[in-house]
Amino acid sequence: MYSMTMTPAPAQPRGRGVPRDVEDRTRDRVLSAVLEHGPVSAAELGELLNVTPAAVRRHLDALTKSGVVEVKRVATSGTGAGRPARRYVLTSRGQSSIGDDYLDIARTALHRLSDVAGPGAVEDFAEERFAAMEQRYQPLVDAAGDDVAARSRALAEALTDDGFVASAAEVASRAGKRIPDHLASVQLCQGHCPVQELAAEFPVFCDTETAVFSRLLGVDVRRLSTLASGGHVCTTHIPTGRGARLTDSGSRSPHADVIPVPTNERP
């Protein structure tokens, strides 16, 4: 499916007694699996490829040093406080190194769609793409109840299950001072985006996803940063204080003030 053409990192020794061609093929398999299943842990890769944990970590170390794979850290319910799980994803350089040209194909197709049917056709396509996500996430978010913070955490869990490496953190203070209750908020961070390169050229993908989050949570959310625009994470501001809810008519609350709060570059 993918054309693998990359030079192994010379600083990483291969397994004792393992021929170079076998080592290279295994490394390519690890790279392909990270592309297909990332964000993915070393243990999961070992199970997928039937490769020993030591071999998987050796290849991941080499790929990381080569700049084609990077580590994303995400807190999960199973890792405990202060011990974020390590997940591996491809970097932009990694996408190029494996000769995957789907981005060029998609970019060309979207430009052609816009030329033939107008810019609104791309927006319609983006809305159709995210409609399935909204339909799947709605019962998961609704199950969290009416509390916006709880709904935000449920959304983050659903996004993480889909590979977005998401987290939701309540913002209680800024510069050492407690934020007033009516300005309370949650910051939803996503460390991975499968359409990052396309969204850089077609921001409607980010805009449509933001609108979906707003409908799912029932509040006026706002994007503070995106991977597509050069950020290290996508950060969405979610107001949780008084006046944050949408009205029955769907109009935005005028009290949904945004107080940007610096976040870690990795969720």
From TrEMBL:
Q: Which residues form the HTH arsR-type domain?
A: 21-127
Cited InterPro entries:
ArsR-like_HTH (IPR011991), Carb_Metab_HTH_regulators (IPR050313), HTH_ArsR_DNA-bd_dom (IPR001845), WH-like_DNA-bd_sf (IPR036388), WH_DNA-bd_sf (IPR036390)
Location of region: Disordered? 1-23, 239-267
GO function terms (MF aspect): DNA-binding transcription factor activity
What domain of life does the native source organism fall in?
A: Bacteria
Which PANTHER family does the entry link to? Answer: HTH-TYPE TRANSCRIPTIONAL REGULATOR SRLR-RELATED, TRANSCRIPTIONAL REGULATORY PROTEIN-RELATED
What is the designated name of this protein?
ArsR family transcriptional regulator
Per the UniProt record, the lineage of the source organism begins with: Bacteria, Bacillati, Actinomycetota, Actinomycetes, Micrococcales
